[in-house]
Amino acid sequence: MSVAEFVAAATKAEPSLAGENDKAKAEISKLESQTESMAADLKSLNDKLTPLTYLYENAPSSADVSLYCHLHQPISSNPEFSSIPSVLRYFLQIQSLPPTESAHKQFPNSFPPLDIDISKLPIPPRQVVEAVKKEKKPKADASAAASAQEGVFGAAVAAASSVAATAAAVVGSAVETVKSAAGVEDGNSKKKEKKEKKEKPAKVQPAKAEPLAPMPSMIDMRVGKVLDVKKHPDAESLYVEQIDVGEAEPRTVCSGLVKYMKEEQIQGATIIVICNLKPVTMRGVKSYAMLLCASSKDGKDEGGMEFVLPPEGSQPGERIYFEGEKYENEKPEEQLNPKKKIFETIQPGFTTLDTREAAWIDPETKSVHKIRTKDGVCRAPSLVGASLS
């Protein structure tokens, strides 16, 4: 099985991977031809992928599937991931895409999914990038500059001196005239000393606040109710839903659930919606949110997917938050900045406990923060140890 055949199978399942127009297709094709060399230098690739979700703009492409294939061997044979966290995050993300899973189903023995327990991986050290101080340009030699410019400025200086002398004479005459008119003798006048200007204290510039590390409370999760669901007109793997999240108008959402749920399972369901991801256009339809689903720890194809459900009786628009004093009362971001990778950083810690309760596990402290509304904890109907996304 070649990389090209695997990529072709994924693109057949999701034609948009090839690009929406001629320009996009050309750019994606160029990136695809570079993926083998990218995978040969994991350190450089890690730096490249740190600010990126996908190789081309904000949607997956065939170049991502190609890079996934070339990364499969080095990832599967490298148990140490602490030095390449962005590569690992990217690899697992592309591995879980519906078109990649479709290609796995067609070619089960080629580039098979890797089961990596990220909760057991060491936390990569945070790198602090020091600001580069600009070097001041050395001043030109004063004597050399004076010598070079003497001829140019000599006449100007002489002319200026002459003008100054003339001006002084005129001003002196004017002052004497004014004193005489006011009846003030020059000998008895007292010169007023000029008040020295008080130097203003230099303003202390407030230190810039350090940017906050990604926190789960930045994610805006709400109760939503599916008002309508239908197949995407141009993508076989997608549904297009209309979701009530407590706003004046329902939100349009595209979800890749065709392989895992029937329309009647989705219609009317009360679910959890992530509302502050950046909108993305999927095959001509703009999607304004994401539905939170639980995927079996055995894989979506083997164990299936199901919605994470809020407590019974929850109403559209109700706030969903994470337990814990640090997070409960924090206000979510208005819109997550894709460049900061907030959701991508937090999402690997989403899971379901033995009780099927949905939670986020802090990778540093291992503390468990359940996902809940004011009325109770959200949970999956059947899946334990599931991944949430």
TrEMBL record:
Domain of life: Eukaryota
One GO location term (cellular component): methionyl glutamyl tRNA synthetase complex
Subcellular location per the Swiss-Prot or TrEMBL entry: Cytoplasm
Residues in TRNA-binding domain copies: 215-321
RNA-binding listed as a keyword: yes
Primary localization class, coarse: cytoplasm
Family annotation (InterPro entries): Glutathione-S-Trfase_C_sf, NA-bd_OB-fold, tRNA-bd_dom, Tyrosine-tRNA_ligase_regulator
Swiss-Prot/TrEMBL keywords: Coiled coil, Cytoplasm, Protein biosynthesis, RNA-binding, tRNA-binding
Keyword set includes Magnesium: no
Ranges in a coiled coil: 21-48
Region (Disordered): 183-210
GO biological-process terms attached to the record: translation
GO molecular function, one term: tRNA binding
Pfam family for this entry, one: tRNA_bind
Name of this protein: tRNA-binding domain-containing protein
Native source organism of the sequence: Kockovaella imperatae
Lineage: Eukaryota, Fungi, Dikarya, Basidiomycota, Agaricomycotina
